[in-house]
């Protein structure tokens, strides 16, 4: 009797855990090379991405200038993520910075501003 109840509980647990994964969206991680210069750039990029629809998480490594972005493919795309970065005034892999936005960045955030 105890074994039968234990088996039913285990099967029920397995059923519940399998049904919870149904409908989950893919959340790939992208690594995007930027030309960001400083902590202010890092903050600007992360804030814009983290408040964007579909972005789950972003973090920029100042040393490598690479932004790690985890996003929901049902709500945004990698191209849209790169466009967000470009519209802030930074290069994003093969997407060049929006020149008008780049010109509006503080002097320290301009390309070559920390050379």
UniProtKB/TrEMBL annotation:
One Pfam family of this chain: HMA
SUPFAM superfamilies: HMA, heavy metal-associated domain
Organism: Brumimicrobium aurantiacum
Domain HMA: 27-93
This protein's record includes keyword Metal-binding: no
UniProt-recorded Gene Ontology molecular function terms: metal ion binding
Highest taxon listed in the record's lineage: Bacteria
Protein name according to UniProt: Heavy-metal-associated domain-containing protein
Keywords for the protein's UniProt record, in alphabetical order: Signal
Secretion signal, residue range per the UniProt entry: 1-21
């Amino acid at each position: 009797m105890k074994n039968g109840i234990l088996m039913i509980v285990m099967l029920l647990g397995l059923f519940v855990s399998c049904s919870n994964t149904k409908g989950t969206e893919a959340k790939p991680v992208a690594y995007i090379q930027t030309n960001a210069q400083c902590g202010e750039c890092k903050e600007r990029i992360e804030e814009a991405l983290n408040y964007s629809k579909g972005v789950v998480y972003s973090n920029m490594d100042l040393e490598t200038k690479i932004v790690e972005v985890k996003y929901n493919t049902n709500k945004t795309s990698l191209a849209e993520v790169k466009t967000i970065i470009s519209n802030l005034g930074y290069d994003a892999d093969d997407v060049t910075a929006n020149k008008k936005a780049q010109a509006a960045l503080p002097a320290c955030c301009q390309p070559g501003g920390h050379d």
